[in-house]
Amino acid sequence: MNGILNIFKPKGISSYQTVKEVRDILNISKAGHTGTLDPSASGVLLVCIGQATKIAEFLVG
């Protein structure tokens, strides 16, 4: 599976925990986020999956 997901990260969990939940739900091993949101902040987190992880650096501005 390859692609980019816009995930709403709620307050109280880390960006890493959000990506881990995506990995668990989709049953994949390769996924990462394009930037860290503070655990006390909520907002949209871009999560790159599979081959899309190779372009993550270009999505950070």
UniProtKB/TrEMBL annotation:
<dbReference type="Pfam" id="PF01509">
    <property type="entry name" value="TruB_N"/>
</dbReference>
<dbReference type="InterPro" id="IPR020103">
    <property type="entry name" value="PsdUridine_synth_cat_dom_sf"/>
</dbReference>
<dbReference type="GO" id="GO:0160148">
    <property type="term" value="F:tRNA pseudouridine(55) synthase activity"/>
</dbReference>
<dbReference type="GO" id="GO:0006400">
    <property type="term" value="P:tRNA modification"/>
</dbReference>
<dbReference type="InterPro" id="IPR014780">
    <property type="entry name" value="tRNA_psdUridine_synth_TruB"/>
</dbReference>
<dbReference type="GO" id="GO:1990481">
    <property type="term" value="P:mRNA pseudouridine synthesis"/>
</dbReference>
<keyword id="KW-0413">Isomerase</keyword>
<keyword id="KW-0819">tRNA processing</keyword>
<protein>
    <recommendedName>
        <fullName>tRNA pseudouridine(55) synthase</fullName>
        <ecNumber>5.4.99.25</ecNumber>
    </recommendedName>
</protein>
<feature type="domain" description="Pseudouridine synthase II N-terminal">
    <location>
        <begin position="23"/>
        <end position="59"/>
    </location>
</feature>
<dbReference type="InterPro" id="IPR002501">
    <property type="entry name" value="PsdUridine_synth_N"/>
</dbReference>
<dbReference type="GO" id="GO:0003723">
    <property type="term" value="F:RNA binding"/>
</dbReference>
